[in-house]
UniProtKB/TrEMBL annotation:
InterPro entries: Sec10-like, Sec10_HB. Gene3D superfamilies: 1.20.58.1970. Residues 1-25 are annotated as: Disordered. Residues 7-25 have a biased composition (Polar residues). This is Exocyst complex component Sec10-like. Signal peptide: none annotated. Pfam families: Sec10_HB. Residues 97-394 form the Exocyst complex component Sec10-like alpha-helical bundle domain. It comes from the Eukaryota.
């Protein structure tokens, strides 16, 4: 590892890989985790284990040693530690497998330390890109009183920050995927080659399994922090798109009597297109419970972000229909998350959107089957264009006293 790091520091960023006499290659300090490098680490470890086994075999072939009297028995003790013959006819009591197990455990622990350090450093480098993208986003945050020239420059910077965020998101997902593959290689190596050699020592197998979990905990911590940053990156861009693309007339039009527009709003279309594009790498990189947890958290954040976003608008009946179309579009997309709790939240959003469509006198019966969403529903009702004129505040206070 010291040799790899020394070579990594000497190589220029443009070359990308480092040639080694043994055929291995590794990425420069600014590049991705390489499964090939971890595979090479395992090969080196296999060579070390083979040497341990070879020395043990050489000891087992020895026939001579030091004969001593032990009470009434003649005992032969080999000059190499662990080999003991406890009878005059040469019957053996072997201690060498235990010694081999101890040495194998030490050599395997070395592999765990090096792989853990390598993949953790790779994940931290990928996290650095997410942090840099977040810093870019901060630069274009402006007040409302700015000139058109400044606003145009800020918009350009926002696009650049969005591109950097998307790129860093994909890079981190690649790093997580390669980290998972690397850990799987080590686990498979342990199961196929190491575990059987540890059996002669009580508790050695369990201890090595625990060491494996401990060694990978630093990488897990880096992965967890990075995935949280990925969610922040996605939500920052979603909020930017909603702010830039959503128009007040999307949900309230002076021409409320004309045929409603059944298409999703442009803001919704842009957000769903962005999520579809950027999350493609997450669907590929994450598996099992990791994937479920990440997408559930992201779905919950998206739900909360949309609720807060819609609080900025006023809705008339045709706008309510348009909102339901947007909610349907968002809901169809999040179904790909396979997160039942998220699906339920978006289904309830569709029900709540009805508060903009029904007549004031029908609001009282709208949530009879779903009383749990009355609080959020009241927030929506306050966004109706006729909230004051229809005196909905007093009407709802008398109907839902517990939630007023």
């Amino acid at each position: 590892m010291a040799e790899l790091r020394a070579e990594s520091q000497q190589i220029s960023e443009s070359t990308g890989t480092i040639g080694r006499s043994k055929g291995a290659s590794t990425a420069s300090s600014h590049q991705q985790i390489s499964v090939t490098v971890v595979t090479e680490f395992v090969r080196w470890n296999e060579e070390a284990i083979a040497r341990c086994s070879l020395f043990s075999t050489q000891v087992s072939d020895l026939k001579g040693g030091l004969w001593v009297m032990d009470g009434k028995r003649l005992k032969m003790i080999c000059v190499l530690q662990g080999f003991v013959v406890c009878s005059s006819d040469g019957a053996c009591s072997w201690r060498m497998p235990a010694t081999l197990a101890t040495n194998v455990k030490a050599v395997f622990t070395c592999l765990l330390d090096q792989v853990s350090q390598y993949i953790t450093e790779g994940l931290e480098r990928a996290r650095d890109s997410l942090t840099e993208a977040a810093a870019l986003r901060e630069r274009y945050v402006l007040g409302t009183s700015v000139s058109r020239r400044v606003a145009a420059a800020a918009a350009s910077a926002a696009e650049a920050a969005a591109a950097a965020g998307e790129s860093s998101f994909r890079s981190f997902m690649v790093a997580v995927q390669r980290c998972g593959s690397s850990v799987a290689i080590v686990q498979q190596y342990f199961a196929n080659s190491i575990s059987r050699l540890l059996l002669p020592v009580d508790g050695a197998h369990a201890a090595s399994c625990e060491e494996m979990a401990t060694a990978m905990s630093s990488a897990e911590g880096a992965a967890y922090k990075g995935l949280q940053q990925c969610i922040e990156t996605v939500m920052a861009e979603v909020e930017r798109l909603l702010s830039a693309e959503q128009k007040s007339t999307d949900y309230w039009s002076p021409d409320d009597g004309i045929a409603p527009d059944h298409r999703p709003t442009n803001a919704c279309t842009r957000v769903v297109a962005y999520l579809s594009r950027v999350l493609e790498s997450a669907f590929t990189a994450l598996e099992g419970l990791n994937k479920q947890a990440f997408l559930t958290e992201l779905g919950n954040r998206l739900h909360k972000g949309l609720l807060n976003h819609w609080q900025k608008f006023t809705f008339n009946p045709s706008g309510g229909l348009r909102l339901k179309r947007d909610i349907t579009e968002y809901g169809e997309f999040v179904r790909s998350f396979n997160a039942p709790s998220v699906d339920e939240k978006f289904e309830l959003l569709g029900i709540m959107a009805n508060v903009f469509i029904v007549a004031p006198e029908s609001l009282s019966t709208l949530f009879e089957g779903t009383p749990s969403i009355r609080k959020d529903a009241q927030r929506f009702i306050q966004l109706r264009e006729d909230y004051k004129s229809a005196k909905l505040a007093s009407r709802l206070s008398s109907l839902w006293p517990s939630s007023s």
